Amino acid sequence: MKLSKSFFYTLRENAKDEDSVSSNLLVRAGMIKKSSNGMYMIMPMGKKVLAKIENIVREEMDAKDAQELLMPALIPEEVYIKSGRREVFGSNMFTMNDRYMKRYVLGPTHEELFAVAASMDGKSYKDFPYNLYQIQTKFRDETRPRYGLIRVREFIMKDAYTFDIDEAGLDEAYAKMYDAYCRIFDRMELEYKIVKADTGAMGGLLSEEYQAISGIGEDIVVGCEGCDFSSNLEITEVVDTLQDSQEEEFEIQLVETPNAKTIEEVAAFFGKEPKDFVKTLLYNVDGKIVAFCIPGDRELNETKALKLLKANEMELASFEDVEKITHARVGFAGPVGLDCPVYMDRMIKHMKNFIIGANKSDHHYVNVNLSDFTPELVADLCQVKEGDICPVCGKPLTFQHGIEVGNLFKLGTKYAQSMNLYYTDANNQLQPVWMGSYGIGLERCMAAIVEQHHDDKGIIWPKEVAPFILSIVPISLKDEKQMEIANDLYNYCTKNKYSVLLDDRNERPGVKFKDMELIGIPYRITVGRKAQEGILEFSNRYTGEKEEVSIDSIKSMIDELYKA
Amino acid sequence: MKLSKSFFYTLRENAKDEDSVSSNLLVRAGMIKKSSNGMYMIMPMGKKVLAKIENIVREEMDAKDAQELLMPALIPEEVYIKSGRREVFGSNMFTMNDRYMKRYVLGPTHEELFAVAASMDGKSYKDFPYNLYQIQTKFRDETRPRYGLIRVREFIMKDAYTFDIDEAGLDEAYAKMYDAYCRIFDRMELEYKIVKADTGAMGGLLSEEYQAISGIGEDIVVGCEGCDFSSNLEITEVVDTLQDSQEEEFEIQLVETPNAKTIEEVAAFFGKEPKDFVKTLLYNVDGKIVAFCIPGDRELNETKALKLLKANEMELASFEDVEKITHARVGFAGPVGLDCPVYMDRMIKHMKNFIIGANKSDHHYVNVNLSDFTPELVADLCQVKEGDICPVCGKPLTFQHGIEVGNLFKLGTKYAQSMNLYYTDANNQLQPVWMGSYGIGLERCMAAIVEQHHDDKGIIWPKEVAPFILSIVPISLKDEKQMEIANDLYNYCTKNKYSVLLDDRNERPGVKFKDMELIGIPYRITVGRKAQEGILEFSNRYTGEKEEVSIDSIKSMIDELYKA
Lengths: 564, 564
Hints:
2 copies of one chain form a homodimer.
Chain A: H1 21-28, E1 32-36, E2 39-42, H2 44-63, E3 67-68, E4 74-76, H3 77-83, H4 86-89, E5 95-97, E6 103-106, H5 111-119, E7 130-139, E8 154-164, H6 167-187, E9 192-196, E10 206-213, E11 219-224, E12 231-232, E13 253-256, H7 263-270, E14 278-285, E15 288-295, H8 302-309, E16 314-316, H9 319-326, E17 342-345, E18 354-357, E19 363-368, E20 377-379, E21 397-412, H10 414-419, E22 422-424, E23 430-432, E24 434-441, H11 442-452, E25 454-455, E26 458-459, E27 470-474, H12 480-495, E28 500-502, H13 509-518, E29 523-527, E30 535-540, E31 546-550, H14 554-563
Parallel strand pairs in A: 3-7, 15-17, 17-20, 27-28, 27-29
Antiparallel strand pairs in A: 1-2, 4-6, 5-6, 7-8, 8-24, 9-10, 10-21, 11-12, 11-21, 13-19, 14-15, 14-16, 18-19, 21-24, 22-23, 25-26, 29-30, 30-31
Helix pairs in contact in A: 1-11, 2-6, 2-11
């Protein structure tokens, strides 16, 4: 591509309103441009990167005999009602009426429609297995779009679905996708971890996530100092290492605690530590108020809480609801005499004579024991902390932030049963199909790559996803010799179908160099004054090295770049 | 691709609910499947065709230095309000509120957003021209989706937009796209005509359409026996060849015409012909009732009417409105004494002593003349008829049906002005950018190709869009020699990256042959009994010819297929 003939621009200044390194650099490099909240235009230079990402994904899917198809984005709402997921997605779905007042949604993921597609045919066990996928636009009305391409409301997803006659088949199909995903993210040169995760809105038997390690990541990837344990914070078990308290149980006692509301303030009042408390958190879970009791030095894990209650959504109860249930100001909830179900973390079972809110403003109970209240259920409800014990080997756990770039789900027969996807087995009996579901967010990959591959000059694209592998930069457009050499190299590259950019703009060399660095082209050949003597400059964006190269050897050097 | 390992099916029976040859064949071939009204899943075999169509389009766009990008489908409604097109599209747009009650639409076409993208930069005249395009999903809430992929509510469109500093630049950009489109449709082997058309919802200076000739086409392509005149019926001028009537003007007279309502019945009553009448049609145009008067033997052209009134939408007035305006039952409207604006076709100027409705039930006026009423405007309002006179050469006009597969628009500076897209000229003055807009509907191309390329056995894909060029069909899976040869040929093809299908299903030969014919694979190699003797069968789907070919020459024959 010749820049002089192209729509091309870069921005010198940092982008306003962008809250991540990747979105700032992508905007400045003229690769993306925000069009509204959580939506971006992918500009020509960015589209080249996206196309390369798409190509990697397609190649690796095809290598596993997956077959590409294309679904509509508009789906009748009744499809999701049938599967029971309309409520699960809630207001995360964009919904509308068509002109005849029929309800439609914009598909956030396509398990249902793929089950419909597959149910048309392939009714005999002999027709299995198969793997169908699409690279298609998804829509999710996120509460808080952020970090540029990382959390958007419209994006391209590769979503694949496997269809098998039994669990062993699903395991095999899943293993193939696991392998394909490793190859895909390796080719993108992403540093990632594969972690066990919550099955969430998908449901099913197992989920694993590919987490690109990055400080900006919204997920916490829990690892271990001692073994290869790896898990999303959401589902990591807290190993219960507490010993039963050997204290004698005292009698529960109401104490006035004026001017003390936070755990720290109340602890100071009593001369105790947070771990001597039991915190009570009131939540609105699918419209019902419930209480969660956890040790005072711990945080509640909402994913575990939702799972325990088999619920879809939860948020902290409103001030009004808290005051209604506790008959006190916010901050004094406790499990004794509370007028709602209480779910208790199992570590509390070891505690004696602990302190709780008294459901009375400015009052706490001390010397509380398990006999003083009756929880609905006891379970692991706490967030794991860095330094907690690894559930596998007992060594300390470590935390890293991750961007979820891909996920795998063993769905089992859940969707087959709700969407009527059955096959006849060898005995002519109807059996439900075993499905798997596998997603990759393409724009999010693009952003994650930039988060991991940049420096203060701009983006440093890995070779397989770079918009161009090489730029050719003549210093002076007026110098005939320079232009002749630059054009000759450019023509050589295009003839060989090498992806190359000729910066033949009438700009100062410094501007051109800065732009080539900002947009992250891996290699640059500068055709400057020494071109007269047959000397060119070759720069490597990865190492920052520059070297002088004889014009005689430059073409074989170029060949090497594209061969590797 | 090996069929035994693929998701593949065909249907023996004609598809229910499909109202065109192409949709029936595409459904039966397992290439598409309806998912809801006006929406289809493109199944794996169909996706291969669509990808080839996409590839042709991309290659020819890139050859004209157009640059690909990607826009969101969700666009804030205010963008279309700004350009004035929100009303133009009306209920053809899908609209919704997001979770924060902000209004969004699903883009039916992207002139506005491309103007926004282009306005970010390229502010100097030196930065022009450029051509930006995308291959992206469009949404239109059609009143009556029909004919399978021909009129759908969600489809992939290649939409390109050119940006120039003056009309001469736009002319050049337009000519390049004209040329690219010819190449694109030639490569798809579509028989098409390029016709002048209404600029419609786009507005602008000029529009031309690429009409694939087909009996099912919803557009009428007007041609000429004598010259290369070519125009969409919508905008074709009616050449006014009427001579002024030489009759003496009589006095207008009210006549009771019991039991006569249609023109034919009233004509019979008076012993006259339809051409002696003036028809009065009452319409609701953008919410206002108006009347159109045309000669009794002509039809109203609504496109001309809309254009004349600078209106967006028109439909026949309701019975209630007609009765309110005419104070009579429906069927007796006439321009004399009518309480709404009257628009008159210019051919009526030649007429004398004509018959009209009297705005009184069961009554007509006879001997009506131009002095008896006052039209608001006089213009060409009639639909041209086959056999009318060509406006260029005077020979008779001919009609063909066409499917609009592509269109070109010279937009001029309309969008630049509404969307604030200006550049600074050499004198540092702000000037509006000249835009062009160019669309191709990809699924519609797929359907049009099938409408033109099929026989009673199924689809006959042109080579450049066939899902596979060649199928290899072994007759007996149990015959080791047959399978060895079939696999060897298959491996030879895949090694050479030839697109090939191996039908290794355990099915009867007749089933396999029928399927390969139905899905329209151009060439077939059958490996049957004579394979033992080194003889294979080669079938050509285009000619229907079969020939025996020696196994020694088959690979060079295959090479030829893929070379051509």
